[in-house]
Specification:
Elements: H1 2-23, E1 26-40, E2 45-57, E3 59-68, E4 74-82, E5 85-86, E6 88-89, E7 97-102, E8 106-118, E9 121-131, E10 141-148, E11 161-165, E12 179-183, E13 186-191, E14 194-199, E15 209-215, H2 227-270, H3 292-300, H4 305-317, E16 321-329, E17 336-344, H5 354-363, E18 370-372, H6 373-376, H7 384-397, H8 405-432, H9 443-459, H10 467-484, H11 486-489, H12 499-508, H13 512-518, E19 531-533, H14 538-541, H15 559-565, H16 572-601, E20 614-617, E21 636-637, E22 640-643
Parallel strand pairs: 1-11, 6-7, 10-21, 16-19
Antiparallel strand pairs: 1-2, 2-9, 3-8, 3-22, 4-5, 4-9, 7-8, 10-15, 11-14, 12-15, 12-20, 13-14, 16-17, 17-18
Helix pairs in contact: 2-9, 3-4, 3-7, 3-12, 4-12, 5-7, 8-9, 12-13, 13-16
Length: about 650
Amino acid sequence: MNRFLLVALLLILLIGGVASAQDDRSITWQQWDVTIDNVDTSANRFDVVETTMIEFSGTFRFGQRVISWDQLDRISSVSVSQDGVLLTPGCANERGTFCARRTSEGTEITYYFRQPITNGVGHFEIAYSVEGALRSYEGGDQLWWVAIPSEHFGFPIENSTIAVLLPAGMAPREGIDPVETYGAPGDVQVRGTTVTARATSAITGDQSFEIRVQYPHDPSAVPPVWQADFDAQRAYEETTQPVVDTGLIGLSCLFGIGGPLGMFLLWYRRGRDPKVGIVPEYLSDPPDDLPPAMVGTLVDERADVRDVISTVIDLARRGYLVMEESLQEGFMGIGQTRKFTFKRIDQAADNLRSYEKQMLVAIFSGGRMERTLESLQNQFYMHIPLIQNSIYEALLKEGYFPRNPANVRALWTIGGIAVAGLGGFGLFSTLAEPGVLSNFLPLFPFGLLLMGAAMLIAAQFMTVRTPKGAESAAKWLAFYRYMQNLEKYSSVESAANRFDDFLAYSVCFGLDKQWVRQFSSVPTTPIPTWYYPTYMGRRWGWGYSPGTPLPSGHQQPTIGDMARAGEGGFSLDDASGGLSGGLNAISTGLTTMLNSTSRAMTSQPQTSSSSGGSSGRWTSGGRSFSGGGFRGGGGSGGGRSGFG
């Protein structure tokens, strides 16, 4: 067993050592020269020979050269030699062979060394013919070749020379035909029909080295099929695209920065309430007789569900309905369930506001005089939007808002969604097809997206009150502070007789639980006349007969009376359970239904990595090319090269 463990440990160390050694492999091109000769301007072809001397650190068995077919028609007549010995064509991955085949990248040449090279130097020569890469212009034809691609796996090239041997009579003309290199810095020499470009420093791991030579026009030369489209694209990139880029950047800033800023300025000028005079810190009485639902909507500019619920309590207090509560024993006497029933009082509804009438009709539909809370489940929610809209319309009619707040928010929200949706779609489209018009094109829909988001945010703040509405809202907020901080501004005992008067307002303010709890220990707190806890017996025990007047002629009972009626076992905690329990039941039920309804209703192309400018130039040549653009990044060939 020990011997087995020792062998396993040695294997692990050996495998780890091999992996580490492989990871440490590297290469350096001591020389990478490219010669272009046999240039036939009429047939639009030339030969290329790439001669490399590579220093290997580690063990290598093959090399690979991919020649891109960008801006050319065909690569043919491929041959590979190692140390002056030609390798044999074949794709069986055998030593001393090479395989040249067409792939989506271009012509892929994989060559296998005659013997693996470990920490040594290899000399290789790759030769091939290029067809359809010469460009034809009346002012002068061009040869533009990416001799060394930028993709050589990050390893440096210490020395490189490009030689172009042009045919007789095709020597670049002084003062007319420019000769330039792109990518790595280079020095250009022109001696008759021989053009030489030498890299003046080591070519780094991500640099290319390419040459562009213009020579006299050959009238018999036929332009390659790709040239017209290429020239049009280059002309667009160098003349029109800068203007388009500038315009897109400007528009993007206009919408992306100016849009949100404009929304802020619009809110600052038109989205704020008029200034009002001095308002007390608190008011202990309602500033006017505005009903709770309208108060809650006026204060926060939204007709919330709690505003609708406050109308139920307000109508009960004003003598239009009664809330009757009973207790139902659970199975085998275990537990109790509270049951709530709304019962209509005989008072006519002629003087009520529209939304208040809608509330009564929604509860007592079909001429009914009583309705259980349970029966309203999954039905009452349909009336919520209509009641909310009627609340807005009541405030609008009585001069508290110049425009319906819901409509203002909806208008801005729809606009924001439309603009943001357009921007999102445009951003997705431009990212899917980058660089067709401009590399800056995605900025424009992104600016629209920002503007749409700003509109959606502004939608929540663009509602504005009239001077009357602003003043009234400020006063009601003072009353809200009084109810919220009752013990700070007054004593609970002194406010006990106003418990029922302010209960509906506590609902619209979201303070109902706090309001009921504060009076739980005050026995003089009057029990609302509209609240009938039948389980307490006595005057409540028989319940309320719908359509009859409320009992009168006797003093309104208090929490203390209910405690005595319950044989000492009752407190406002019980009443609180009844009152706030009923409110909570309504609130929870309606909110759940409303949420359910809401859910249902609502239920760059690869650019050349060569330098954008010239790295070397023939000083005696012309300053402008006859066509095909004026900067780098548009040469034929290129690709990648590496070893393994």
